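EI: anyone free to look at a 440-residue chain?
SC: sure, send it
EI:
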Amino acid sequence: MKSIALQISIATFSNLLGRAVGFFVPIVLAYVFGISRETDAFFLAYGIVTFCSTILSLPATHLIVPFVREIERDATGTQRLGKFVASILLYSAIIVSVISCLIYLVTIHWLISMLPLHTEGQILFTRSLGLFLCALPFFNLSCLLTGILYARQCFGLASLSPAIRGITMLTSVFFLKSYFWIQSAAIGFMMGEIFRSLFLFCLVNRTIEIMAPTFGLFDTALINFYKKAFFQLLAMVATAGIPLIARGYAITFGPGAITIFEYAEKLYMIPLNLAGFGLFTVLLAGWSRVHLNEGVHALNRAVSRAVAGIGALASFLSCILFLGRSWIIDVVFGGSSFTEHQFSILKDTYGTMTLGLVPNLLSQIFSRGLLVRRNTRYIFLASSMTFLTVLGALTFMVQRDEVQEVAKALVLGYWISLMAMCSLYIHEIRKGTGDAHIHR
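SC: here you go
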């Protein structure tokens, strides 16, 4: 118990430091560039890449953990693990590079004509999207390398690595803004992910002897990984598509709407990223051991304790953030060049989003329980139900052209997600229909 608590503390504290720099990025962008049609175009491009990075991050970072641990138990684990890691990195880099090119081609030839952007906004959107998509393969490699380090119980430096991207973005903005304006942030994002992936590769190479990749298509571990990752990717497409569609609705509300939504969402995601990331990372590894060694009932007891404890803390934090929303917005964005009306909308939007903190965190607990059971199909089903709920709410419930109406639809989706994830998890535990082990 002390070991798990220490690992959670290390992972959480390291993640806090690693993402602390990222906390200042939207604040700096707000101070330097303000709110305009151009920032809307930039954040729309950033939203597309955020969508892509979100669907890649969970399968890459978390799903790979039990695979690495299982291979390590094998008698020939060292050599096999080295080949497995090399193959995963190679194949994933190729796949994500192809996907990035397809996304760019589809966007510039189809999506851009549907967006209410003027000519300069379309040019900025296209260039920013190209820079962000160039960083996507490196982001995926960083997530895979981070997951491998987590499986090896190396939480500290792996959790600190996002600071490399944040520092590079801020440096790029300060030194290149006079040449590239807000595109300097996209350049910094790309360079930061390149530096981060190289840093993590060096760390992994010190703990694992990375060998020549397996070029055959019949490696059992690779096949199983991509099978499980397929449904997890579909689930993340539905999950990450929710804020992307919300941005699409927000941009029709007038200049600055999508930027306000972006700032409110970034502020809302801070406690989720800082507190939840290290906690859920360590719990996933711990619950995997409990499930393999003690069975389903022990796993269910561990998940139930986590739901009770984290649910109580999340409820308290949600109340504090909701009641203090005006003070938080004034402190964070008080020196920016927002109008009084924009400040009012930002406060209302952020306050509404804080009501989704509890269901968001609890849904992640149940999804980790399903991940331990290897039932990614149920995760996909729950995510699809949430996506359809938010889409219906945005279509039929948004009666005013205001960003806080979009936030209300998102919160409704979070609560539907919690109910769906909880029901499917209970069904999985009772029926035992998920995969218990990785078949080799």
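EI: The CA atoms of residues 1 and 49 lie 39 Å apart.
SC: 👍
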